[in-house]
Amino acid sequence: MALVVAVAVLLRARRTREATRADAERRAPRDPFDPGQDTAGDPRLLKAGDLVEYLGERFFVRGSLRLRQGGFTWSEHYLDSMDGTADGRRWLSVEEDPDLEVVLWTEHRGSDLRPAAGSLTVEGTTYRRTEHGTADYRSEGTTGLGPAGRMEYADFEGPGGRSLAFERFLGDQGRGTWEVSLGERVPAGTLVVYPGGGA
Is the pTM of this model over 0.85? Predict the structure, then answer.
C-alpha cells in the first residue's frame, strides 16, 4: 500500500512540474520577428504543391528555385493565382539575412530597363542598387528552367519596402535576357502557408 501511495505522489509531482514548465514556456519572451510566432506555416519550407495566401489572394506554388552564392542561400517560388486573374508572372522570394525577409514579386513587362545605373526610376519610384552578382540554382517543379544552372542578378531597393530586381539565366549560348520584377515586402503575419500533400 505504501508503494502505491509513493508512486501516486511521484506521478502527481511530475505532472505538476510539467504543467509549470509548460506555463513558463508560454510566458517566456519570444522574438516578435520569428516567423513561427505569427505566420501560419513557415515560408522557409515552401515547395511545389503548397498553397499560400496573401491579403486575401491565394496562389499555388508551381515550382521553386534554390539559389546559392558562396555560403549564402535563398529560395524563389513561382506562383500561380488560383483565380487566374494575376497579370504576369509572380514570385515569392524567401531569405534570411539575418532576419527572415519575404518579398512578393510581379513581372514588369514592356520595358527596356537594364541594371547598368546605380539608381533607376520606375513608375515614379526611385530605386538604388544594393547588390549585383551571380548564383547557382537548382530547379524544382515547374519553373521554365532546367534542373540546374547559373544566373546573374541585380537588386535595387526603394522606399517603403519596395524593390526592383533584374535576373538573367546564363546558358551555353551566353547571357540570357534580363527579366525585370517589382517587389513588395510581405509583412510578418500576413502570409499564410498551406502545405501540400507531398513530403
Answer: no
